[in-house]
Amino acid sequence: MNQNYTTAFNVEQSPDEVFAAINNVRGWWSEDIEGKTDELGEFKHHYQDIHRCTIAITELIPGKKVVWHVIDNYFNFVVDKSEWKDTDIIFEITEKDGTTEVRFTHVGLVPSYECYSVCSDSWGTYINGSLRSLITEGKGQPNQSERIANKHGLENS
Fold it and tell me: Strand 99-107 to strand 5-11: parallel, antiparallel, or no bridges (unpaired)?
């Protein structure tokens, strides 16, 4: 059984509009990003001292697919600091009955991971909430980390 975290939604917008929104990472995930997110290469994300990661964009197929490879990752709330390292984050864009399906899969983010509940909850918020809003309304809600961290009791007091 495939245990990788995955989620999907459909929108009215075109595959090209969806592709552009996915690559506008600051518009839906985090404004704390260093580097370009719309071309092959690396970018870095960080949220306080709770989460840092370095991501390589390894595949960009306009209107179809975006693939990220997590080169390095750090969470301050898990014992195994290598969680996420060498995992792949895949966005697949497919036209279906006049709508565009966005399928997000974090290959390697599995239920046995200590961060699984926090990470899957976070991705759900960012993908189904923020990214979807960016696509459909032109505005996402990046930097939801604080709300998610508070919900899971991760905030430093």
Answer: antiparallel
pLDDT tens digits, residue range 87-146? 999 999 999 889 999 999 999 999 999 999 999 999 999 999 999 999 999 999 998 666
Structure tokens at 27: 């518009």
Dihedral of the alpha carbons of 101, 107, 110, 113, in degrees to the nearest 10: -130
Q: Name the 3-class secondary structure at 113.
A: coil
Distance of CA 16 to the CA centre of its chain: 18
CA atoms of 109 and 17, how far apart (whole Å) = 27
Q: Encode pLDDT of 22-52 as tens digits.
A: 999 999 999 889 999 999 999 999 888 888 9
Give the Cα separation of 100 and 85 in Å (integer).
30
Distance in angstroms (rounded) separating the CA atoms of residues 137 and 86: 33
Tokens of 42: 């690396």
